[in-house]
Predict the structure.
Amino acid sequence: MLRGSDTFVFMEIKYSSHAVDRMIQRNITTQDVELLITDPDGTIKQSRDKIIFYRKIEHRKDNLIAAVTVLKTRNIYEVITVMVNFEINV
C-alpha cells in the first residue's frame, strides 16, 4: 500500500515462478521486493508496461537490488525477475 498526502493506493504484487526461483537463489525476501516497489531509490522504464525498481537495502552487502516488473493493471505488478549487484548505466 502506498500513501500519498491523504490517500491510500492499494497495490498487489504477484511473482512469476522465475522470480521466486531467483529470490530463493539470491536470498531476497518478499519484504525486500515490497520495499523496492513501494519506496525505490529509483526506477527505469523499459517499455510501456515494464519497469525496473531498484534500491540499496541496508542489511545487504551486494550493492543495489532490483526487481523487473510488468504492470498488469493499474494496481497489480508482476515481478518477473530480481537482481543483485545492479548497476545503473548513465
Remarks:
- Strands lie at 2-4, 7-9, 12-15, 42-45, 50-56, 64-73, 76-86.
- The chain has one domain: 12-86.
